[in-house]
Amino acid sequence: YKAGLQGCVLSNHGGRQLDTCRSGIEVLPEVMEALREAGATRETFAVFVDGGVRRGADIFKAVALGAAAVGVGRPVLYSLASYGDKGIVRMVHMLQDELQMVMRLSGTPDIASITGSHVITKNLSDHIVPLPVDNLTQGTYMPLMPAARL
């Protein structure tokens, strides 16, 4: 902002290069706080979040935390690959419908009324996800062991 920029994109490129990096939505609150401290506003500096957007609720959360826009790369690729250009149109309509539903359920009649108070950020950086167990593999096949243990 102080260098004359008018915006930035928060992205970890889908986590493919550095899979332990924090996602754009995780660092968004910190970036917005730093921008406020520097004197920037939503009108003078646009922050885009790229990555992890799959539903309208994801768009709602990003906007609530300060994003001006979001990137929807994979949904576009999946829609295009599966259904062509009609798939992309359908995907956009689905995201619009989902966003409108979340806005209605949250009591926000327009984008401007979406605020940070609509999102709980307390556990934003927690990555505790239970790993699924493959019972078929565990019960059918002999587990792999290093040669030293055979």
What does this structure look like?
The protein is mainly alpha-helical and 150 residues long. Helices cover 43% and strands 9% of the residues. The protein has four helices and three strands; from the N terminus they run βαβαβαα. The chain has a three-stranded parallel sheet with strand order 1-2-3, with helices on one face. Strand 1 (7-11), helix 1 (24-38) and strand 2 form a beta-alpha-beta unit. Helix 2 crosses helix 3 (73-106). The longest helix has 34 residues, at 73-106. The protein is extended. The termini are far apart. The relative contact order is 0.13. The mean pLDDT is 86.
- Work out the strand percent: 5-15%
Global mean pLDDT: 86
Overall radius of gyration: 20 Å
Number of helices: 4
Structural class: mainly alpha
> What fraction, in percent, of the residue positions are helical?
40-55%
Spatial separation of the terminal alpha carbons: 61 Å
The major pleated sheet works out as: 3 strands, parallel
Assign an overall shape.
Answer: extended
Strand segment tally:
3
Spatially, the strands of the biggest sheet line up as 1-2-3
Summarize the structure in short.
The chain has 150 residues and is mostly helical. The chain has four helices and three strands.
Q: What labels would you give this structure?
A:
single chain, mainly alpha, 3-stranded parallel β-sheet
